[in-house]
């Protein structure tokens, strides 16, 4: 399926798009190369434009990109581990699909980071929508019990916040706050 069709589907009609995503064969590599690596680059490129292409801008952009790539995989592992606790089934590829496609709104909205305050407000709205998209997809991808989808989503959100904090402690130093706030994982807050 074409990237733009999938973007349109997951952003504007996730209830219809999730069953299509669930039915498609995928691997970790195909999800990363065909979706995550492409969309996760939007924010770092916008940061590079906003902060300038030298020194701090490059450092922040690289940290944000690595945070998004690593954070997506770690969050997918957590989602997979938690699935059975919420009536779902463990399947790492399905969990990775759920995390990667749920983050779509955040990654696309990061283009607005070239506008400081407005960009952050748009990113906040996208993060809220990403939580909704995760909620809708949890029952389809992880076979989560419908009555447990809200608690599942909230627990995953809390885990994303903790991961973001751990990233902050690990990376520290110059450029952290921008990298975390503007990266895919930090936007899940």
Major beta-sheet overview: none
Helix content: over 70%
What is the gyration radius calculated from CA atoms?
16 Å
Low-confidence stretches: 185-189
Mean pLDDT: 88
**Beta-strand content:** under 5%
Helix-strand makeup class: mainly alpha
User: How many angstroms separate the termini?
Assistant: 30 Å
E-strand count: 0
Number of helices: 10
Coarse shape: globular
- N to C succession of SSEs: HHHHHHHHHH
Q: How many structural domains in the coordinates?
A: 1
Which terms summarize this structure?
mainly alpha, single chain, 189 residues, 10 helices
Write the layout of secondary structure elements.
Layout: H1 3-12, H2 14-23, H3 28-39, H4 42-51, H5 56-83, H6 92-102, H7 104-109, H8 116-141, H9 149-171, H10 176-182
Helix pairs in contact: 1-2, 2-8, 3-6, 4-5, 5-6, 5-9, 5-10, 6-8, 8-9
Describe this structure in words.
The chain is mostly helical and about 190 residues long. The chain has one domain (about 25-189). The protein is about 75% helix and about 0% strand. The chain is built from 10 helices and no strands. It has helices spanning about 5-10, 15-25, 30-40, 40-50, 55-85, 90-100, 105-110, 115-140, 150-170, 175-180. It starts with a helix and ends in a 7-residue tail after the last helix. Residues about 185-189 have low confidence and may be disordered.
